[in-house]
Amino acid sequence: MSKLLRLAIFGLVATTCVNASSELVTMLISGELRTRAYYQENIQDLSDSVDDNFGRIEQRVRLRHEAQMTDGVSVVITGEATGLWGSQNEGFSSGSAEGTGDIPEGYLSLQDIRNTDWSVKAGRQHMNFGRGFLISDNEKEISYDALLVTGEFPTWTISLAAARLDEAQTIEGLRGGMMVPDSNWNLYLADLNWHDENILPLSLGGYVIYAEDETALGREPLIFGVRGDYTTDIWSVWGEVAYETGDVGDQDLDAIAFDVGGSVSFESAWSPKLKVAYTFASGDEPSMEDFEGFQPLGQYRYFGHALSPTMSNVHIFNAGASVQPNDYWTFGIDYYHYMQDEEVAGIVGNPLLTDPGIMKSTTGLDDNLGDEVDVSATFHYTDGVKAQVLLAYFMPGDAYGADDDDALEIRGEILVSF
Description:
Distance between the termini: 39 Å
Number of helices: 1
Order of helices and strands: HEEEEEEEEEEEEEEEEEEEEE
Helix content: under 10%
Mean pLDDT: 86
Low-confidence stretches: 4-21, 89-98, 168-183
Strand content: over 45%
């Protein structure tokens, strides 16, 4: 199937290059400079007895070139340079101290083809659907080699995609009976979304995703999902449910995940905002006849910056609040309580993330993963310059053992966009 995907993308691009004679009209250049400094304690093993306290600084520079041509044709190429320096514990790596380069974006875009409502993007790109529960472009860290066809109608949006996770940015590893997203995933997606703000500030959607890998695990999940989002200037309520069937090796897959929540803003001094959310992904126990561990795809969201759980075998209860005393400052706090769906041994942190979280395995004797408090302060210097300090404090539960120590992460960030 992956060969057919590559052939389809190559054929579309080649045909367009042969037939298009558009002239360059505009060259747009944009980019960003992101510098992050970390200090972490006990993130790897939840123990003060081992010296795993370390600091590091991550640098990411991106330059985006968009060549706009006539007839709705444009080409986007983004170059990236990353670097990592500072002391780090042996065995931990989230980048290269010597610096690396990559092309996270490189695609051809055809807008309003033949004066219709259809558009095409072919090549390496970021993708996001809904709130990014399964496939997200948060922080623009995950890229796909994809063919994306989109129909934009007055009240409907239809998306059809065939994609493969960018092999240059993937991580492979067996964790807790499941494989994290890796370069062997091929995705085929149909997504339908309805929205009509003239009637209600409501968005409703549904999707079907077929995924396959090329490993001995033989994972072939077929995912059916629905979602809804009701948002006004004061209220926001959302929900998404995804059901997985198909196969994992010789077992039938039967898994579910959902994300529900709401927030309310108050029109008063400091613009306070409150939110509550509950996120769940089923887990698998070896004695089960079916395989019930939910298989995450390209989900890239932080449900707590210290634990940073993978979206499988987990309950996440979240409550948070934020205030804005003026146009420059935003202060926020989030509380998380975590539990396992099944009491099995495994690593909960998500290595797909830049900041992968707790790397110690649970014991499989208890389902209480623990609690976390995240506190943040964000300073908006200008529209294109932002600075943030985040403190995440994780208190492990009995799922990790009786003698585990608390974990701490402090992250400072400066983001410049132009």
